[in-house]
Amino acid sequence: MSRRSVLFLFPLVCGFCANRAPAQSEYQLEITAGQLFRMPLHVYDIMSEGLGPIRFGGGESPDQVLQRDLEYSGFFILSRGTTFDPANPAAGAPAGTRAVVSAVIMDSWGRSVVRGTLTDGATRSRIFESDYPLGNPPNRWAIHAFADEIVLHLTGERGVSQTRIAYVRDHGGTREIHVIDYDGANDRQLTRLGTIVLSPAWAPSGDRLAFTSFGGGARTVVGLGLLDGRYWTVSPSEGMNASPAWAPDGRHIAFTRSVDGNAEIYVAPSQGGNPSRLTFNPMIDTSPTFSPDGRFIAFTSDRTGQPQVYVMDREGGNTRRITFLGQQSDSPDWSPEGDRIAFVCLIDNVFDICTIRADGSDIRRLTAGEGMHENPRWAPDGRHLVYSKKSGGERRIWVMASDGSGKRALTGGNGDQYNPAWSPALSQ
Description:
428 residues; 6-stranded mixed sheet; disordered N terminus; mainly beta
């Protein structure tokens, strides 16, 4: 279901699915799942030179954080070693090991660092060695940086350990934005506006958020600077405005606006200004998402009777429908590589997460029979998705690989948690 349905658009999951869901057999479409290749990686215990045992704020050891980062990357099959021997880097590693990971926590020029090394498993040559400041008190971000560099050198793309996820948490009468590390650590409340806020979206630079605020009785798209804490208004205050999505250049934000009872897609400067209307249709158009090159926008429309996903040019022309699955398809999000669009679809009385190519081919159903799913959003590596899932009465934030494997809960505690958004790569 889409980010903005609470506001004014399509019905909520709970009230919709019982009365209007068709049987899946009505749709003669093949839904497939992809496969992610994993390479063998041998990881030695992190050693310490003259420093006592280190624990991070959550009680985890550096070894636990590193192993989790590499497992969650989705690229590796891990094997473990104890004591690293520089003379024989692959000692004890299984046959076919692609690379060997070792690290030592040490003092370097008066500061504690993690000196991480990656060694080729076949040639025993060093691939890279680098120092990562550990901080005082020790900061798990040093381990995240090491893990991401391992992924970069072995795959050509950086991992997602140095990312965070923004989401909405219900505080009982108010809803605020929280941020959490990609692995579920360091959950903290970001906004304290005492109202309802929805649909956080990260700027491509990672230093700003946009979201929908109900403050002052208006439904307004608001920006927030994460470095200075400054708020500003993006959309006009008139009408109902929701579902912000940043353009790849960071200079514009698309959003849904209704001033006459008809929701349409608009785009405005990200620092606020006069919006330009992109869609002109008597039916509902909502939930925009930009392609990574900024040339196209995917969105949801019920112009053919039921909500489905469409794609149009950046200026609003050449609109084409790409989903024909289920009675409702909604909440699109374009992958960072531009090859796929994630969305939710009503199948067998349940909202499931699917992905599809931008031309409407190669549909993949990633969830089935596991509860109600909402708001899929891509990680910056294009290999993971974050989403909300309702099971057992409350919604929680979950993460999975882009082939549907490795599903794990990210949040817990009281109150619904939903509307997730995955950040770009962040610096320490």
